[in-house]
Amino acid sequence: MVPVLIVGHGGFADGLRDAIEMILGGTQEGLAALALRPEEDPAELAGRVDAALTKLGVKGNGGAVVLADLFGASPANAATSLLERRPGLQVVTGANLPMALELLMLHDTAQAPELAGIALERGRDAIKDAGAVVREAYARVQAEKQAGETG
Q1: Cβ neighbours of residue 48 under 8 Å, at least 6 residues apart?
Q2: Contact at 8 Å (CB) between 115 and 65?
Q3: How far apart are CA 101 and CA 17, in angstroms?
Q4: CA-CA distance, 15 to 40, in Å (whole number)?
Q5: What φ, ψ does residue 17 adopt, rounded to 5°?
Q6: CA 65 to chain centre
């Protein structure tokens, strides 16, 4: 199993973990969440990320996936700062619920690099303009209805 660590600002990581556990049905093995607290020095977060990975059972070159909220922000930077000592670590930014769910459903069957790629793909695929999709579907139904009435 590839461990998954979610890192983010404030309540983001805990909220994402809570949503995952609600949907997947309870505490998920191999999943942890860490928050950058407002009063915390971002430099301290790298040590907490390292400790959380160790607690998840990740050793040295071992694989794990870190989902971070924002590219270039302190939580992602804390994780990427560990790459020299933890080369098996995959850090994916722009964390969202669809990518996290996909990772948790597959982390028993794939390796960390593959999971990172899946997370990127699933995360991008899940971004939609829901209003535009519904309006388009509604317009098709209306057009079919009108065609049926005149035909």
Answers
A1: 34, 78
A2: yes
A3: 10
A4: 19
A5: -60, -45
A6: 9
* Helix intervals (H) in the chain: 12-24, 42-55, 74-80, 97-106, 112-125, 130-150
Give the pTM. 0.90
Render pLDDT for 36-78 as a digit per residue (tens, 0 to 9).
998 988 889 999 999 999 999 999 889 999 999 999 999 999 9
Q: Which token pair is 103?
A: 């990772």
Place of tokens 């430099």: 43
Would you mind telling me the total number of residues written for the chain in this entry? 151
Distances (CA, A) of 49 to 7, 67, 73, 110: 8, 11, 14, 22
Single-letter code of the amino acid located at 50: D
Q: Quick check: 58 and 90 in contact, CB under 8 A?
A: no
Please give the class, per CATH, of domain 4-150: alpha beta
